[in-house]
Amino acid sequence: MDNEAMATFIKTRFPETITGTNIFRDELTLTVQKNAIAEIARFLKENEELDFSFLSDLCGVDRVETDNVFEVVYHLYSLSKNHRLRLKAPVSSDAPSLPTVTGVWKTANWHERETYDMFGVTFEGHPDLRKILTPDDFEGYPLRKDYPLDGRQPATLRDIYRKGGE
Amino acid sequence: MTSAADPTTTHLMTINMGPQHPSTHGVLRLLLELDGEMITKAVPHVGFLHRGVEKLAEYRTYHQCIPLTDRLDYVAPFSNNLAYALAVEKLLGIDIPERAQHIRVLLCELTRIASHLLWLATHALDIGAMTVFFYCFREREAIYDIFELVAGARMHTSYIRVGGVSRDLPGGFTEKVHKFVMEFPARINEYETLLTENPIWKKRTVGVGIISAEDAIDYGLSGPSLRGSGVNWDIRKTEPYSQYDKYHFTVPLGKNGDVYDRYRIRVEEMHQSNKIVHQALNILPKGDCLARIPNVTLPPKEDVETKMEAMITHFKLITDGIHPPKGEVYASIEAPKGELGFYLVSDGSSRPYRLKIRPPSFVNLEALPKMVEGRLLPDVVATIGSLDIVLGEIDR
Fold first, then answer.
1. Across the strands, what pairs with A61?
2. To the nearest whole number, what is the mean pLDDT of chain B?
């Protein structure tokens, strides 16, 4: 199935919740409403013609300055059909939250934890939403664009670790 | 620290493994809950090596990001460089000279051998076979000498650039690689005589750390860790990049998804990579090793020294960088550890708006609890070794 056919196929199934299609450099991107993400993900995985059994990657993108949203981006791959698809779910930056897809692909667990850690996006229904890369009492979300490159932690990291040890 | 689950029968003990433990291959920390010697729960903690590579990349021009990629999977620098360069090239929509593509393949396969050698050395050492370590490092040293010859550096090579490679192969390269390629298969057999049929080795690895094909896909495993479970997926075959479709090689598959199968696969992959390197030496066409595209690649050094226009272009590229069109791409390669992907978002400026790295080790490690829960403590060491993780790319 080529990109155009795939876009039409999925859009006819979800006419209301898929809000945009884009093909750039032969890569298909579908923009979806955040509340429908788990349902669409399940369909993409279970439909035999699409068979997106493999979640390659899941991450966040900060679009607050232009659109006031964080985008959560999913990269899907089908091992049997050898095709790829990108899903994008914009979530409002005021209360960034959307349903988890850990029920569809187990691998989403750590990816969602990382997105939460880096952007502060929460995933409803995630079994274990903890920080993953930054220290426990690290404040702020480092990959947001308003977070400065040289950090703004209250103490040096050394102090943070020392406090944790007491 | 102990906690009583049921005071009448048993005590569960929580022990801390790492982050300074030789068999965690870096700074991985595991919290293990034990019932006697059996693991009831394993919780990995990562992030000790987090340097904010993705954040740093947003403040650098596209070329300046290349040295950052060296430091992800620091035992496979060429693969990281290549995956990143492919992403930028896809974004720009440019073609690369054939010679450069074959040089990339050649070096990436040498990298795969070097990476697998380090894996085999430490994996065997973890389980108690020390001789293998010295043998593997002998050959790894030979590969690193080749890297040094090519790139001037042994580990952080930054040799592959957007548009090709930084400079042509030096004199004496072909002879050196040829010598290595001829000797290496015998060396692999040497390692195999020490391990493959060794009863102690088999006792520690056969039937240990099992993951089924279905679970492996669900957990997003890739590379040898996925193929150990019998799933035939190699990006070099399914989505060939850099002319991989011109090479003849087979993709070894496992059956049981245990530590032993993953061992067999990586050993066979070294044979196959060696074959690819040999083919690349024969294929290697003449021509440019860096595409000549104004505003993307640097002009040749001799021109910069003699021609005004070339010097201006050089200056502009170094100070301002390249400006890819607005858009987003995902490019992935079959790195030694699995699918290494780069997701690049461009806003049309000279710096990446967002760079997301999909590191194979990060995803592969996620499946560790699934593999070790219900097994014995010493199996954890064998299983971590068989996943071949590098914390540099897990923590980024």
1. A71
2. 89
Q: Do B47 and A86 touch (CB under 8 A)?
A: no
Supply B242's token pair: 């850099």
How many Å apart are CA B31 and CA B23, to the nearest integer? Answer: 14
Does residue A145 lie in a domain region?
no
Whether residue B141 lies inside any domain: the answer is yes
Q: What CATH number has the domain bearing residue A92?
A: 3.30.460.80
Query: pTM of the full predicted structure?
Result: 0.90
Query: Are A149 and B56 a contacting pair at CB < 8 A?
Result: yes
Cα torsion B311, B314, B317, B319: sign: negative
The whole-number pLDDT of residue B1 equals 46
What is d(CA B52, CA B302) in angstroms, rounded to the nearest whole number? 37
Give the tens place of pLDDT for each residue, B171-194.
889 999 999 999 999 999 988 888
Report whether A89 contacts A98 (CB < 8 A): yes
| pLDDT over threshold 70, residue B48 | yes
CB B225 within 8 A of CB B366: no
In this complex, the residue of B47, B54, B220 whose CB is nearest that of residue A134 is B47
CATH number of the domain to which B78 belongs: 1.10.645.10
Model ipTM? 0.86
